[in-house]
Design a protein that fits this description.
The complex is a heterodimer of chains A (456) and B (253). Chain A contains 13 helices and 20 strands. Chain A has 456 residues and is of the alpha+beta class. In chain A, helix 4 crosses helix 12 and helix 9 packs antiparallel against helix 10. Chain A starts with a strand and ends in a 10-residue tail after the last helix. Classes of the chains: A alpha+beta (456), B alpha/beta (253). Chains A and B meet through strand 2, helix 10 and helix 13 of A and helix 7 of B. The structure holds NADP nicotinamide-adenine-dinucleotide phosphate. NADP nicotinamide-adenine-dinucleotide phosphate binds next to helix 1 and strand 5 of chain B.
Chain lengths: 456, 253
Amino acid sequence: MIAAPELLSGWGRTSPTLATVHRPDDLEHIVSQVAAPSPRGVIARGLGRSYGDAAQNAGGDVLSCSNLDAVLAIDVEKGTVTVESGVSLDTLLRVLLPLGWFPMVIPGTSYVTIGGAIASDIHGKFRHGSFADYVDRMRVVTPARGACMLEPEGDAKEFWATTGGMGLTGVITEATLKLQPVQTSRIVCDTERTNDVDDCMARMLERDHEYRYSVAWIDCLASGGHLGRAVLTRGNHATFDDLAFSDRATAREYMPRTLLAAPQWIPNGLLNPLTVRAFNELWFRRAPREPHRVVEGIKPFFFPLDSVRDWNRIYGPRGFVQYQFVVPSGSERVVRTALQRFSAARVPTFLAVLKRFEHDSRSLIGFPISGWTLALDIPAAPELTPLLDGLDELVVEAGGRVYLTKDSRLRPELLAAMYPRLDNWRSTRAALDPGNLLRSDMDRRLDLSGAGRRGA
Amino acid sequence: MRDALGEVQSVLVLGGTSDIALATVRKVVARRGARVVLAARKPETCDSAAAVLRDAGASEVHSVAFDATDFASHEGFVRATFDRFGDFDLVLVAFGVLGDQARAEHDPGAALEIVQTNFSGTVSVTVPVVTRLRAQGHGDLVLLSSVAGERVRRSNFVYGSSKAGIDGYYQGVAASLATSGVRVMIVRAGFVHTKMTDGLKAAPLSVTVDAVADAVVRGLARGREIVWVPPAMRYVMVVLRHLPVAVFRRLRL
Ligand SMILES: NC(=O)c1ccc[n+]([C@@H]2O[C@H](COP(=O)([O-])OP(=O)(O)OC[C@H]3O[C@@H](n4cnc5c(N)ncnc54)[C@H](OP(=O)(O)O)[C@@H]3O)[C@@H](O)[C@H]2O)c1
């Protein structure tokens, strides 16, 4: 196993810190690393798609799990797959789709590992559950217990502390996931434009139940009567009969497209209100005026940005933050106020993503609660602190929270109010890691684990 | 940890009673609050600064004893401070003396005091600070340097040469920390109205402590390695730097 010092940052490319990166290739390595890490602890890292500092550990050890990339077993009777934690969704889809299987929950990029998906309890355009709800079993290496198997019923506390637990309960090495059968690799997708955010939310409430997947892309720079004008896209898995004859031969092909690369170096300030406004305008006009149905592939529907490799570089060396919050149903006004404030502040943000949840995450510090979630990317700048801190207040008042996997700037004081089961999570976590060996920069910044280490 | 928008959670000030440092840290804590440790020769003289910082939003302010010319104490001081307070996101090196140029020209003790504070003392404490910052893998190290070191002048060459030396030393420190996760920023200020310059005739382009503080905060947000205050000083110094000796001397600066 090679170990080398490396500067790591999250997908937002802010706050890089130095860690010793280990690339374990088997369970034994992980067990020994977790048992005796460097004095500044250890954290697991997948494909580095957390936006902030969740998978970096300044001055300590990082276990990069991308060598754990074996698909171990597919059970066609039960519809489950068992994989090592470093397997990406991209790999998984390449294996599963030709066999007619599909994961239950798919996020907005295929370049996440299964370990990362569980540790973040990720969600997607599916409203009725998050990733952890479809994990049958997983192997986790914790400081207190070494390698152990966790099941959602038998080991409820430890299981739901680990899902969504940001890697701070242990290193996930293997998982068995429930799957859904699909006839094709295509989505029947309906697209419509909405005039403003109220119209958009009303349409989602009215007809979402007809679709398995639903998402609205909002133009944050529109203001006044167009505040929150959006393009709503919703879809269901296509059946074989939905496909045109010419497409039936490739019914279960994943169809990966060649990647375009973003330029290596892009100056700060390329994204400004003018360029972004122009982009948003174009994008909105491109959507059909009248509701429109197409059959499209998995990639354009679920992973529109995956076709541009390293798209995060367009934000320049100062990087960007993604602000994502959820508020319970009935708090639609928080979404509206947020859009108003972004529009008034003229932050150059591309499209914001608005989705609904119709379930609460079972993870102790999981993100989803029934309601509305809004997410947007913004170039990092000090002026954002008061703007986002102000929105956090509204979110907390409404009983909502921000998503830790996206976070890189939350005020630590708000953590407990946003995550009411935090104490429960902390005590479960402490039992699995009594010596506080698992650490990340996010933990140092937010004191998630409550160990009050002041950064040591 | 410094967050994605540049907010810091802990600050160590070496030279805790410096007017420039106080103005700078005030701006830093006003944003989000942070834990501040003021290190000064007489920690009890930090009380009023501590009150100002608490008012401005600091979550905690501590004062600890530190003397820049007590070289032997530096390693122990740095170890104890980092062990007690944990990681520092920002270390501001702000101590310094202007000294009495006229006296320093014939009194070796007076000349040495300036050099030992501004140069040797800074080097001596910087070595263990860099060791700790390197080990924590993150943080900002900021030196209050001076335009006086950019081209040393007749009127304050003892001070100027000490600043020239430490500025050069920090350029090297910055290079040595390039891939360490630790950032280094050198602040080259012109004439600043503080207790150090009290009673002196203000030089052209003089600035207030708030202007320096703003420049430091902005420089950190932008990830700058060198900051000039006021920014125009950079061009003034380019000219001065390249003047032939004969011309430069006739300016009687
Ligand atoms: N003012 C300017 O025009 C100007 C311009 C460019 C650069 N600078 C630099 O900026 C820094 C801060 O200066 P300032 O203007 O804020 O002046 P200041 O208010 O006089 O601060 C300097 C501080 O250094 C401390 N100090 C002196 N000798 C020390 C020692 N042996 N051990 C520990 N602390 C010691 C002093 O503390 P006590 O005396 O309270 O112990 C004093 O508070 C200095 O490095 C200065 O050279 C100043």
